[in-house]
Design goal:
The chain is α+β, with helices and mostly antiparallel strands and 436 residues long. It is 58% helix and 10% strand. The strands form three sheets. The protein has a five-stranded mixed β-sheet with strand order 3-5-6-8-7, covered by helices on one side. The chain has a two-stranded antiparallel sheet with strand order 1-2. Helix 6 runs antiparallel to helix 7. It starts with a helix and ends with a strand.
Length: 436
Amino acid sequence: MTTLSSGFARARRWLREHPLAFDATLAFCTLVAMICGSFTDPGDGHGRPAFGARTPELFSVLLMTLAAAALVLRRRRPMQVLAVTAALAAVEYVLMDPPAPVVMSTVIALYTVASRTDRPTTWRVGLLTMGGLTAAAMVFGSTPWYSQENFGVFAWTGLASAAGDAVRSRRAFVDAIRERAERAERTREEEARRRVAEERLRIARDLHDVVAHHIALVNVQAGVAAHVMDKRPDQAKEALAHVRDASRSALNELRVTVGLLRQQGDPEAPTEPAPGLAVLGELVATFRNAGLPVEVACADRDRLPAAVDLAAYRVIQEALTNVRKHAGAGAQAEVSVVRVGATAEVTVLDNGRGSAGRSPGAAPGPDGGGAGDGDGPAGGGHGLVGMRERVTALGGALTAGPRYGGGFRVHAILPVEARTGEPDRPGTAGGTGLCR
């Protein structure tokens, strides 16, 4: 049974790949059926057909052969094949008595037209064929017009039209389902690529925040150590200790960030919590050790969601890094985090005079873009851009620009109910207070 089914499947697949061979086989089988039918008398008076009761004329055999041969081209020229077979069947009804079943080829041709055209065309062509052949059989046949042979012509041609239309409708339905499935697959792929791009951007922001902050501190402390190495070795040792601490912190944060990229089955990711306002004091201490006076004013109220807590920490970190890099000597900074209704507002101010990378003479735009990027000469970095993207991803807003009378101001408004699809970071599921 398995061998028979596999052989049938192979034959079906071969015929589907070679439609002309299939049509030639169908034409030959139709010719055999018509010739066999031409030897059969429909009835002997008692409703029983008799085989061999009559012999077809040579002209009828010629018509049957021509009609069967036309079926070979039924896929390429369906309308023309239907016209030829219908004309041959009509000639048989007009000239021969009793007629040979040439109409069998017309039934197959009509089915082909109905399955490969639209419904209005099927109705028009089907009614014309049914009416024409039925009328020819009734008018020119020797049997009464109401005989079953005449109504059989009407029934078989109508059945061919209905079957072809049903096959066409089912084929269109299957094609529509397949097209929807392919479109859904493309949509899933596009959504996956979009999510990958968003995750890549988020990780890039995290890496930028970590590296920019700690490397800036390392650079400052290394410069201090090099300057006082000969005259004040104790101060140089203290500066190098700060370098060591800053580099260790950078490595730890990088380990946490890179741990988010691990796949299932990889070694266990680090479990250290992501930074947040709970460790704001440690962050401020690193800047104070680097020579930047920082004043902090925070309201210890409700707990913040993990994403909002991390975004607030990163905004403060990046803003203080820009102050240290661009505000110049003698600059001071002020940090405030307060809860206002359903939002948390983060503000970082400085009184610096430096202008590199911060465009103090440019007025900020509606979204703070006019202030330039605080992470490189002439706004060539990604500091403010990264902060703005991080805040906007949560449904908040960030403005940054020069203050009247000198200095710079960064102000972020973060909704407490974060609108983000990012998963919670390790160790931050419960959120933190505004400051500790």
